[in-house]
């Protein structure tokens, strides 16, 4: 990748699901650090420590699963609902705006034309510092995906796997 970058054949080197230890290993062995890291990020799992590390090393943060994989609990959370109602927006729009105001790169996925349109309607309002703080307090450390180190974090899946291993 570094060779392709140096030859001008690619403009950016990116990684996905790299945690601090992975990025540190790259720092020790690579000439060029990645410019962007796509990681699971949503209000319940904002990855603040990793984000601070990436900011320090000028690595952009791209949100994977910015809406918590469309988790109903998150999308119906009363704090988010209250903020959404105040701004006459959907909870998804509030979450996307929260990411945007934190400087996170967003590429939300949807095949639903209505949601695609809604996802683009996040530039006509701002969240207050108090609202940003309320959303930040939703951090529970909850992942909706597999940990990058390969450990499955869903307890039901773990219990079922023990039956077969």
TrEMBL record:
Entry keywords, A to Z: NADP, Oxidoreductase
A Pfam family the protein falls into: Aldo_ket_red
Molecular function terms, GO-annotated: oxidoreductase activity, acting on the CH-OH group of donors, NAD or NADP as acceptor
Coiled coil location: none
Highest taxon above the source species: Eukaryota
Matching InterPro entries: AKR, Aldo/ket_reductase_CS, NAD(P)_OxRdtase_dom_sf, NADP_OxRdtase_dom
Keyword NADP found: yes
NADP-dependent oxidoreductase domain span: 1-139
Keyword Oxidoreductase: yes
Signal sequence annotation: none
Family per record: Belongs to the aldo/keto reductase family.
Record's protein name: NADP-dependent oxidoreductase domain-containing protein
